[in-house]
Amino acid sequence: MNTAQGQSARLIRDNFIAKAAYFAGRAEGYTLKQTSEYIRADCGLPSDTFNVAVLLQPRLSAENEAILEETVHYFTDKKYPMALWSWESKDSVTFETLRQAGLKEAETNIAMYADLDALHPITECPAEFRVKEIASPAEAEQFGDVLASLFGESEEGANVKAFYRKISRLPLWGASLMKLYIGLYRGRPVSTGTLVFTDDSVGIYDIATLSDFRGQGFGSAMFRFLIGEAKKGKPRLCVLQASPDGIGIYKRAGFEPACEVTVYENRHLVE
Is the dihedral of CA 186, 233, 21, 260 positive or negative? Predict the structure, then answer.
């Protein structure tokens, strides 16, 4: 990883932390603990979509029992599924320490970045499709329903819906730090997207499309729309985390890879 990639990786991590921290003190039961060594977000529901930990120090060893206690064991003792996000190499001491703590590797994403001034997305949308920022509690719940569809009829899907029902009572619309969008096809919510603004970057998250409407360009249209909205902000760095299947799409759009992000989970320890 060169210097530019290393700096971008830190900004991508910081943007993700801003997203995880956003609802602390806003949503009932949502708590955040942040130290120089880690952050821990507890959404108050058994959901590893929102119960997350991020390590802030460069390496974690078995001697760092206090950190493991406050991140991994904290959720396991509550019988809450959680996800720990690590920007460290899977060949590192950190990886082995997390494995010994009982966590399993769930997925590996690619952290990516781009200069917004260099991005020129096509503005075309599929016919009868439009994107709008959520502007009511009902639209916040619709956002949650689409995102929850990624999890089918599972308990996680139900908890994602419950989370968005909870935050739908908050004044989310018009917020300057986090903006939620829904894509409507013939008036029906079919896709979602989120922007998170920090002083240094704009992060793209939560691009999802209902299964019956995939392959029709709605996800791509949402992505292009979000780029256009991100360009209106002050930060010029745009960041995202891509699945291995999606990296080609984002490279063609002008994004460069910075590093791998490994997500570890404890679900097998609490079910």
Answer: positive
